[in-house]
Design goal:
This protein is of the alpha+beta class. It contains 3 helices and 8 strands. The chain has a single domain (3-140), classed as 2,3-Dihydroxybiphenyl 1,2-Dioxygenase, domain 1 (Roll). It has helices at residues 13-24, 68-80, 125-128, and strands at residues 3-9, 30-32, 35-41, 44-50, 57-65, 86-93, 96-104, 110-119.
Length: 167
């Protein structure tokens, strides 16, 4: 595994960019009107913030990997432990195209396992198509409270073939 991933929902992006830049001693590697991301080496973390949710706080955790084999290993580990998983495959979210799957901890906290394949100029492909209003409601709200509920980051507790364009 390459980096721990932490994504927070924030109310004021500019204030949080200033705060976390001072805390980390580094500027974001990507900043958009609703999103900022730091890729830190010590500690190895992909730390992202966004204003896309209605509630501030922890959105989700995850692991960002460097190679398809590492992503496959995480998926096999989840399957071997019989963890409910949503395999999105290749999808777009957070200004990137990624291969990813999701699991949830017993509290319903979503964990994203992903391999970044490329950067994109918009938050997701729905915005590229001019269909930002058609995004799932989860993109504008906090993760669902129960493991069985679907949401932007709170994926269903049962495997599904449904694709999502939201992180």
């Amino acid at each position: 595994m390459n980096r721990l991933h932490v994504h927070l929902n924030v109310k004021d992006l500019d204030a949080n960019v200033r705060f976390y830049s001072a805390l980390f001693g580094a500027e974001p590697v990507r900043i958009e009107q609703d999103y900022a991301k730091w890729l830190l080496d010590d500690p190895a973390v992909n730390f992202a913030i966004s204003t896309r949710a209605g509630t501030e706080g922890l959105d989700h955790l995850g692991f960002q990997v460097d190679a398809p084999e590492q992503l496959s290993e995480l998926k096999q580990r989840a399957q071997k432990a019989d963890l409910a998983m949503l395999d999105e495959g290749e999808t777009t979210c957070c200004y990137a195209r990624s291969d990813k799957h999701w699991i949830q901890d017993p509290q319903g906290l979503p964990w994203e396992h992903f391999l970044t394949l490329d950067q994109i100029p918009t938050f997701n492909d729905r915005e590229v198509a001019g269909d930002a209003a058609a995004q799932p409601a989860c993109c504008a709200s906090a993760p669902a409270p129960s493991p069985a509920a679907a949401g932007c980051c709170a994926k269903p507790a049962t495997p599904s073939s449904a694709k999502s364009s939201c992180c």
